[in-house]
Specification:
- The chain has 209 residues and is an alpha/beta fold.
- It has 7 helices and 10 strands.
- The strands form 3 sheets. It has a 6-stranded mixed β-sheet, sandwiched between helices. A two-stranded antiparallel sheet has the order 1-4.
- The longest helix is centred in the first third of the chain and has 18 residues.
- The protein is globular and about 50 Å long.
- The mean pLDDT is 91.
Amino acid sequence: MMSQKEIAKILLNVGAVELSPNDPFTWASGIQSPIYCDNRLTMSDPSGRKQIAEGLAELIRTHFPETTLIAGTATAGIPHAAWVADILGLPMVYIRSKAKGHGRSKQIEGKAAANDKAVIIEDLISTGGSSLNAVEALRSEGVEVTGVVSIFTYELASADAAFSEAGLVYKSLTNFGSLAEAAVESGAISNESMDGLLAWHGKLKEGLL
């Protein structure tokens, strides 16, 4: 499997990482962030998306070998879930952030059985909120969730605590630290910009933001 830094370089090469220290991005959790990681751009990179899908599949084989169902989060996790399900030869569903307001009012699209053991695929994990929303949707249908895998994690203690409370393990192909190293080495981010980014990340990990 590719190293964390090699996966980080894929994200950098497709332009998935954007810095905006003076006009920060707002995460779904409300956190103000000077960095935005748009992993949807990997869909447009045939080589990179294949390597990512193979890496995610390997994480599942290694850490969650009992898996019988792949579940992607809408919308960014859906394509990666489809590619991973194809590699592993497993059925797939996807999970909306909330149930539809029309038709059959479903939150889970596809067939999930009560005896399934599902792994959820995310594009990235920040606080873990969207992942755990998907977990609850599956559990409400009697599906056992064995774990969560993602392309990238911000390595936040709040996410670790949230997953621990939910009784779940999550695994990621790369993380904030590896991305920072790769970005500086490639020249994508200057040392000066990285100093500010690391300071922000340190405060965020300590719950000061």
